Amino acid sequence: MKFFKNFRFLAATLIVGVAIGSSLAIAQTPAFFRIGTGGTAGTYYPIGGLIANAISGSGDKGVSGLVATAVSSNGSVANINAIQGGAMESGFSQSDVAYWAYSGTGLYEGKGKVEDLRLIATLYPETIHLVARKGAAIKSVADLKGKRVSLDEPGSGTIVDARIVLGAYGLTEKDIKAEYLKPGPAGDRLRDGALDAYFFVGGYPTGAISELATSSGISLVPITGPEADKLLADNSFFAKDIIPAGTYKDVGETPTISVAAQWVTSAKQPDDLVYNITKVMWNDATRTALDAGHAKGKLITLKNATTGLGIPLHPGAERFYKEAGVLK
User: CB count, 10 Å around CB of 17?
Assistant: First the structure.
């Protein structure tokens, strides 16, 4: 009888121990938070890496129990699709693409609305670069007619904006010899003389274009004039921009246009998690990392975080911005 009592006590102890162990394991299981970025040659990827490192919980920094990673992708559209499908917890998008997705307009016309799309922060201006081969005799967008031009890959935000820019100057893809390459391969083909120009949307300076300007020389094509003015009037998510002289070797000041880079997520992400991520995003340690880590990092500011929204803020992010006094 005593044996059975002891056996029952041991069994109960084991069950309690397993239960406690399981609870601890669950409690200690890290939360993974992927950030869809862009190609490794662009600006999204290094900025994503800086943010992922800042918000990952290790030591006395980041969000406790959070493991964040920057994931290379095809850009804005691919990131929004991944968030919608649950393959990513968050991602970067151009403000125009985010607006179209949420409203079911533009690129998303007839494809349904991505109603769960929410904003964590507006990050920095994304400048439209129209990079041309030296000697290609391309002085304006209109000069692209008949030229070999890469518009970036399907699924990227760049290709959408490239089509809008071409249209503003009376051109379509049928008027050019269109190719669909990421910025890295496009730059290689430009260097080899197999391509005349390519579009890139991202913060300046971008490493791939800097390397190209240094190694073989480039020109930047201005996006300006009455055509650009009408484009700006018709598309409120665009703004005037200037690439300063000397940003790229031997390239003078170039007037162009820009959209905003935004960090987006799903309404399904827990409010407390997004609140804590947003809080860490704007602390002093992250500020230092952004300032030191990339030229575009200095433009990522709390003051600009809630500008040019286009889509609703995630409730967790909104709570932080109200506490911080940047949102009423």
Answer: 10
Here the contacts of 236-240 (C-beta below 8 Å, separation 24 or greater) are 237/95, 237/96, 237/99, 237/308, 237/310, 238/96, 239/125
Provide the token pair at 14.
């084991």
Confidence grade of residue 29 (pLDDT, cut at 50, 70, 90): low
CA neighbor of 52 nearest in space, from 78, 72, 22, 25: 72
**Residues comprising the chain, all counted:** 328
Answer yes or no: are the C-beta atoms of 121 and 263 closer than 8 Å: yes
CA nearest neighbour of 207 among 49, 36, 34: 49
Domain-located, residue 18: no
pTM over 0.90: no
pLDDT in tens, 227-274: 999 999 888 788 899 999 999 999 999 999 999 999 999 999 999 999
In terms of residue numbers, what domain contains 245? 126-260
Instruction: Report the C-alpha gap between 181 and 168 in whole angstroms.
Output: 22
Indicate if 267 and 155 belong to the same structural domain.
Answer: no
- The structural domain count of the chain equals 2
pLDDT score, position 186: 96
Residue 219, in any domain of the structure: yes
Average pLDDT, the chain: 89
